[in-house]
Amino acid sequence: MQGGRASYYTLGCKLNFSETSQLTQILESAGFETTAFGLPSDIVVINTCSVTENADKRCRKIVSEARRISPQARIVVVGCYAQLKPEQIAKIPGVYAVLGAADKFAIAEVAASAKAGGWIKTRPLAEANVFVPSHSRGERTRTFMKVQDGCDYTCAFCTIPLARGASRSPKIAQLVQQAEGIAATGVKEIVLTGVNIGDFGLQADADGNRRRAETFYDLVQALDSVAGVERLRISSIEPNLLSDEIIRFVADSRLFVPHFHIPLQSGSDAVLAKMRRRYKREVFASRIRAIKAAMPDCCIGVDVIVGFPGETEADFEETYAFLVDLEPSYLHVFTYSERANTHALSIKPSVPTTVRAERSTRLHILSDKLKRAFYQRFVGQQRQVLWESGDAEHGLTGFTDNYLKVTAPYDPELQNELTAVKLAAFNAETMLMETSAVNAGTSVIADLDLLTA
Known about the structure:
With 453 residues, the chain is of the alpha/beta class. The protein has 4 domains: 4-127, Rossmann fold (3-Layer(aba) Sandwich), CATH 3.40.50; 131-254, 2-Layer Sandwich (Transcription Regulator spoIIAA); 258-375, Transcription Regulator spoIIAA (2-Layer Sandwich); 382-449. Helices cover 32% and strands 25% of the residues. Strand 18 and strand 19 form a beta hairpin. The radius of gyration is 22 Å and the shape is globular. The protein starts with a strand and ends with a strand. The mean pLDDT is 89.
């Protein structure tokens, strides 16, 4: 196939979005015009996730939709699900090719092939040992830049090490150069993303052996001097890798904003041990205390899994009480789902799905309360907002440095601009706050959007 139209659909994490942008650039260089998913295309790339069973089901649904819209298109499935279950995906009607972790960036070869179809390229994970740089494109104000890939951890519930391979990173000098290039395009905020970014620094030597040449602390120090960018944000970092020196540096840095997202998964030491996590709850609590002491206004997001095998009602109540005591800013709640080839399958007893759902509901309600309390703290304060996207119908949206989402009447001149916003009254009925910009050229009335922060 020589050129044509290409569309893309991304499932899963921000890392996947950054890599989809890299795939887009590869196909554009091969002569393909990018078009929106849902429009007729000659090639459709589906970048998959396999964190939960729902992700697998969604992949099948998107393949079916792509086939309906573009019956003659070459549908290429890449990503984590593609590495884990290539033969299963290849049997889905309409799938032209399946590319695993070590092969997805060879997509131009698949697109140009005269072969009728049936491609399955999933080399052993040991061959997924090269770091391919990528960052998301298309958002004028914010981009997600990949700084690390793969994972050496063996958490009992997780398939990512089976899908992405071992931890690996580029050199800091390469990432600084990439960040400078991103800044030159006018992007104001860069979010650092990866599978396990705190494990940054593992690089292969001439013999193919990995060694830690640099650290994540070295990386944040180097990026803090990048010119042209207004903000740097850390996406997610393991608590055992979030050191005091990183916390202190972020608190005093020029560019890094007061926002951390830290996976807890459980507040029970018994469950953490079953999960094969590399810390106990007191380590996590110490990280939260250190952040709050250094940055009282910091936004702290927490991942939690409910219904892990063997989680008793007492374990869950321990987790719930632990979170109430910690008072993070919001929760990302995941309901445990069985994944093939994970250690968790051997742990008994299984938690009934109805109990998993009940526990999930309770934590979602708690998250809403925590989020509301966090927002309420800033009534009457002034924060800098980076205005992002919007339209005349829905207004303009943006985020403060500590991740409060605000909306304002649409003004295209404010897009990609930083303005100081005073947070005013809280509307309990709609969970919005009225705000007004205090340094813009004209008066701007905005709302602080609690529900979608």
